[in-house]
Specification:
Shape: globular
Protein name: Response regulator
Largest sheet: 5 strands, parallel
Strand order of the largest sheet: 2-1-3-4-5
Keywords: DNA-binding, Phosphoprotein, Transcription, Transcription regulation
Radius of gyration: 17 Å
InterPro entries: CheY-like_superfamily, NreC/VraR/RcsB-like_REC, Sig_transdc_resp-reg_C-effctor, Sig_transdc_resp-reg_receiver, Tscrpt_reg_LuxR_C, WalR-like
Structural class: alpha/beta
Pfam families: GerE, Response_reg
Organism: Streptomyces xiangluensis
Strand content: 5-15%
Distance between the termini: 40 Å
Oligomer: single chain
Length: about 220
Amino acid sequence: MPVTVLLVDDEPLVRAGLRAVLEAQPDIEVVGEAADGAAVIPLVRQLCPDVVAMDVRMPLMDGIEATRAVLRTVDRPPKILVVTTFENDEYVYEALRAGADGFLLKRARPAEIVHAVRLVAEGESLLFPASVRQLAAEYGDGGGNPAARAALERASLTEREAEVLRLMTRGMSNAQIAERLVVGTETVKSHVSAVLAKLGARDRTQAVIAAYESGFVAPG
């Protein structure tokens, strides 16, 4: 089955460019478009896309609020890939905090766009881990977020789960973590699932942000 994508951007040329790049791939299908975040929820319910590629800045409802709205109101929400002009942008970090699964630069090469959609759809690795770390260093709370610290303490991660979380912050996939720890991939998947459940994180990106903001790992 192809990865289905909904494009959300107020610039028609951006949507057309993304559509051309993605539809050139046999395993990706663009199922719809919208010009503003306000149109996302009904389209997500109608089209059930696997991934929403969404501009972070739009006139009526930006990508941050649209992300929150989707995650708050849709039972089985899609993966959300924020599309942005600037990499080091507080809006991008706030979108990740709100629940977005990753971000993509509008100037990215076609191969990078395709890779980002596939990676976010798979959900087994962190997209652009170095950039997420830089965003956390710039706009996070430097390990001083009381709510994040309290959530990590309540999680009571085992030693192995803590080790897996550290490796997740480096952007390692399940297969890479399994190789590093000399265990099976299914074992790693179980540990990752336990980490997400204990942290109350929807995905790896949210778990990694929690790790940075709680001071569990330093983003610098």
